[in-house]
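DOMAIN: structural biology
WANTED: fold as tokens
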Amino acid sequence: NPFLRGFIKGMPLANAFFGATFSASVAYLLRQTFAVETWVYSTYCSITAAVSMVVPLIAVPIVKKFKPNKLFYMATLSIAGGILLIGITALFGIYHLIPIAVSIVLITVFDCMTIAAAIPMQMTSSIMLQTGVEKNILGRVSATLRMVSIASGAIGEMVFGVLNDATWVWLPIFLGSAGVAAASLFFRRIIVI
């Protein structure tokens, strides 16, 4: 099944770049590069966590109105765009083209926009998996996909951690955007839109 093979290859790739960008690079940017106080970082985390809880309530009716394949592709592409905006904002903040406080606010807004795209992407990936895989192997396929995604996420975070220390922090953020965009284009090839 070409869809299934492609999906098992593509989702971990997208998750690795997506997860590493936020858990390694954006955290490094805020805590190390911008040296924000703990309360500022905690506020950022609280806002993004609140958005993560609210978006599913809003997304369910929206997901029902669109073809899962098309929404999945568009959401993945939107995530890449959101990460790109975070990278640009980080670059502007680091080089003092905008005040760091403005950069932090914009990064929080763009992160929330990315979350708003990530949740429908996850919803539609579940729909596509459940409708594109035979019922007798669905459990095994789901477990394999989860295992590979977790492993790729951990590897991505380690690699991005090293890159954060060895390069400019904005570089891994742009790499994260490029990786998610590449995964999105890969998905475009394997799913019918």
